[in-house]
Write the structure tokens for this entry.
Amino acid sequence: MKILVLGSKGQLGLCLHDQLSKTLHDVTYASRDEVDIADFVAVQQSMVENNPDVIINASAYTAVDNAEEDKESANLINHLAVANIADICVTMDCLLVHISTDYVFDGKASKFYSESDTTNPQGVYGSSKLNGELAIQSSGCKHIIVRTAWVFSEHGDNFMKTMLRIGVTNDKLSIVDDQLGCPTYAQDIALAIVTIVNKYDTDITTSDIYHYCGDESCSWFDFAEVIFAEAAKAGCSIPIELTPITTIDYPTLAARPANSALDCSKIFNTFGISPSDWRQGVKSVLGLCT
């Protein structure tokens, strides 16, 4: 199968390279420098030239706070550019695998969010990602939309790597403890996407949205505690003291969902894909970093 990966130098893009390199698929990787999805003509030229069976869009505007002051860029990358890709997929009759986010929900639910729950993004980032989803659905292209959350890995910038970095030079850290979500190891997301692509020809797949994230909900404070506990075992320098704080104590430009835990039963029932074992993911990252 011919696959084109857009955003191949980002965190998920690099993990897709790691996982797809183990398969026999004919894969072309395009970084933002090579194919900027904001350049609609360049995207079309690349897709026509490669003539893929599957497009995996791992490109996104992910600067949640910056999006509040740069609405145009967030909308261009997360919505308009995605709509362009979807329209081209219709013309070329190829499958679009697109990555979305837990931020399409308002975080006010007291349960895990399912794919059928009402969306209600609270900021520009979440709204732009939701509009991207809607554009894909309205285009009529064959698609799989994967919503995920709290992504971390050995690649790129993420919460875990930030904690490890600042933990070396700070004896005390204050971490938000009233926002709940499911950390997700990006290698597991990439593997889930590979599994979906491998099974797409078996006719069990229809265009749909699926949730994929970690197997256990926690707060950012809980996540940090696990990171530093494993880091200590690996011989890394860690803070002496972690202090839980509230969202009010750590104001940000963009509102964060108080609870963005996602229900992953649908992707398991359809593809047999289990949620990400994020605690094992933490150990894997430390094993590669030490």
